Amino acid sequence: MRSPALRSLNLRRLAASVCFLLPGYVLPTLVLPALILPALILPALILPALILPALILPANVASAADAEPFSIMTWNLEWFYDDFNGDNFSDLAKEMTTPSRAQWDWRRDAIAQSIATASPSVVALQEVENRRVLWYLSRALDREHKQKYTELNIESTDHFTEQDVGFLFRSPLDVLSISQRMQTRQMKASEQYFNLSKHLVGVFEVPLGNQTSGGQTETVIVLNVHLRAKAEAEALRIRQAKLIHYWVASAVAAGENVIVLGDFNTEETGDVTRPDSDLGVACGLHTPQTSDDLVDLHSRIRSPARDTHLLSKSFDRILVSPSLLTDTPGKPDLVFDSITVRQDLVIRGARDTPSQHWDDYWGQPDSDRDLSDHYPVIAKFNVR
To answer: Where in this chain does the record put each Endonuclease/exonuclease/phosphatase domain (predicted)?
Structure first.
């Protein structure tokens, strides 16, 4: 015979299996499924309806929304030479060495601050001494501003000034290659072209979204140039410009992303470019074909804001292929957004006069000394 305690325990278990107690109510468990199952099933039906559209969106659409804009700066740093002349050979290069270590530290750090303020994806620099000064600059950007740039350079063939051009670039970009181009003996014999002693080609891979979520990339070919100076040298610059166009024409015609930028030393103002001018030839306007033409973004800057030089000239330009101006339907790509000349990154106090800048540069107080006689030009491209 079961004990009273055991019978009491079994009755409690039976009651628990038959009834569900609510305040003031006793509900048989047979009623519970009608109340509980909808509460369990409805979320299972509703949540997929909310979540699935996000999951079945094309990966490139979701990825492009996360993409950082691509921006590129061109800046002639004007004799960016450190205080050590033991690695210089020409008299001019030795003469342009920064007078002291303290003055070099000031200029390096001031230029790093300006670059950090703009924080472009790629910086194309002209009139740099060598790769070492670019490395000093990238270290200052990391040390003072926590911005990690990688420097790229190949020594130029300008043995008179010993000036180079170079790149800085930062994450999330990758560099696929850097190179210099040449002309053939036949091209030299034609006397239609003239070597660019100071140029560098960089091929960059630009993410179009979050790479961990299947984002795509685009390749951008960037040609950084520094053409022969002075107005009277335009005939020579036209020959250099023909070489530029020869190098990039096939890539532009094929729809690739091409940017040619730097110090063109052109006298063109940015209003209407003469097809047979140095800049017009670099853009490809001198040929009947239009499929290989570059577009000068300077025409998209308001006239009063176009000056890129102390002499109120527009020497510095950014030329782009048409592929960077239009949005390709159905896939993310880089599309031009804006271009600006950033005089504010260079001018300290009042704008230097030519005599102050070139005759008494180091005699001015640090707070009044402009960083260069050129002003940076920055173009921005969005992912769309």
So the answer is: 73-334
- Express each pLDDT in 34-64 by its tens digit: 444 445 444 454 444 444 444 444 555 545 6
Residues 52 and 86 in one domain: no
Are 8 and 112 in a shared domain? no
Same structural domain for residues 330 and 196? yes
- β-strands 217-226, 257-263 pairing: parallel
* CA 226/CA 342 separation, integer angstroms: 19
225 and 333: one domain? yes
Clarify whether residues 26 and 107 are in a common domain. no
In order of 51, 94, 119, 137, 231, the CA distances from 169 in angstroms are 38, 29, 10, 12, 32
Is residue 17 located within the same domain as residue 99? no
3-state secondary structure of 93: helix
**What is the residue range of 187's domain?**
70-383
Q: Which tokens is 273 given?
A: 């470019």
| C-alpha pair distances (Å), 255 with each of 70, 159, 220, 224, 241 | 18, 36, 11, 20, 21
Q: Are strands 164-170 and 149-153 parallel, antiparallel or unpaired?
A: antiparallel
Nearest to 358 by CA among 315, 305, 309: 309
**Rounded to two decimals, what is the model's pTM?**
0.84
* Residue 120 CA: distances (Å) to CA of 74, 114, 173, 178: 10, 11, 11, 19
Please state, in angstroms and rounded to a whole number, the distance separating the CA atoms of residues 103 and 87.
19
Any domain includes 89: yes
Instruction: Tell me the per-residue pLDDT of 198-220, one tens digit each, with 9 for 90 and over.
Output: 999 999 999 998 655 457 999 99
CB contact at 8 A, 118 and 73: yes
